[in-house]
Amino acid sequence: MKKLKLAFIGAGFNGQIGHLKPFSKIKNCEFTALAEDRDKLRTLIKKKYNFKRTYKTHYELLEKEKEIDGVIIVTKRNMTAPIAYDFLKNNFNVFTEKPMASTYAQAKKLVKVSKNKKVLYKVGYNKIFDPVVWKAKKLFDDKKITKDLGKIIMIKSHRLSGSGYPKKPNYIATNEKNIKSEPSWPFAPSWMKKKYFKDYEKYLNLYSHNINMIRFFLGDKLTVKSANLDDNYISSVLLNYKKSIPVLLTTGFFTKDGWDDYLQIFYEKGYLKINFPPQHIAGKFTNFLFHRTNAGKKNIVYKSNKTWCFDLQAKSFIKDLELNKITHNEGSDILKDMLLVENIWKKFIYEQSR
Ligand SMILES: NC(=O)c1ccc[n+]([C@@H]2O[C@H](COP(=O)([O-])OP(=O)(O)OC[C@H]3O[C@@H](n4cnc5c(N)ncnc54)[C@H](O)[C@@H]3O)[C@@H](O)[C@H]2O)c1
Prior knowledge:
binds nicotinamide-adenine-dinucleotide, single chain, 37% helix, six-stranded parallel beta sheet, 2 domains
């Protein structure tokens, strides 16, 4: 079988540990081209991962490489969207890190060009590729399993994060400065005042993971009821699911080593709680508890210690390329996460102005 030809844009920290490493374990693909601005890093990565050709900028790669099956873009956040746009516009299948863009309008532009060009476009919310999450979702969707638990009465999504990274991450770091800042699109929506930009950017970056997971379980019947994003310590957002069920999203920072990240769905007689570990730390795994004893059923506890969501995410993109169809986290779906985040910020700013 012909190997799929991959191109990578950016081989920095997460580019290496979250993407190059996982894709390198997959047999039916090859590392054809790399664009990396930093010279020493580019040379070292070429050697380590056996890239056929390398380029300093993504523009050179775009011009020279005509037979790439899929491009993986892992650059700084304000550069993700314009680089993705350049590739989508030139008929490449694209996978990018999250967030897909800095604003809903930018994200819409990306989805539109991917549809016009009929190319594949996937966004990297890695957590949903964990089999434990799929198992939990299957139970959640199974009416026979949930029938004795009564109605859903509340949902809670909670993330108090620390750094989330190992103390000594295993990747190639050079002494070169990471200064590339172009091409760049605006950091925040045009309707937002500058004083909110920093907090908005942080919120979108960190907690769009929670939004993505909430939408994976609950779908699109979500509206924003209230938002307090005064993130000196903790932000709290109240969404409504199916018009009346509260979804509480609490987020903020712990100490550097702390981590508490879960999604909990409360029924009248039990709950489903999925715990997410810091995703870049090896040896910590997603698990869930389906607490049903109030309904006279056995609890279900589930964990898997054999898989890592970044590995499965990479496999998923390769499968998508083979099928010529995005199976999960298609750009057009993630667009809805972007809208929800922007609506949360609109609500917060509106409530502040009253
Ligand atoms: N899913 C997660 O849990 C998670 C975690 C961390 C980071 N991220 C995402 O990963 C991305 C950042 O990744 P990182 O930490 O590897 O960033 P980084 O800044 O360390 O690496 C980016 C690399 O891209 C290179 N580069 C940038 N633009 C280029 C261009 N046009 N042509 C060639 N090279 C270019 C830079 O030289 C740099 O080495 C962000 O989008 C961030 O949101 C996701």
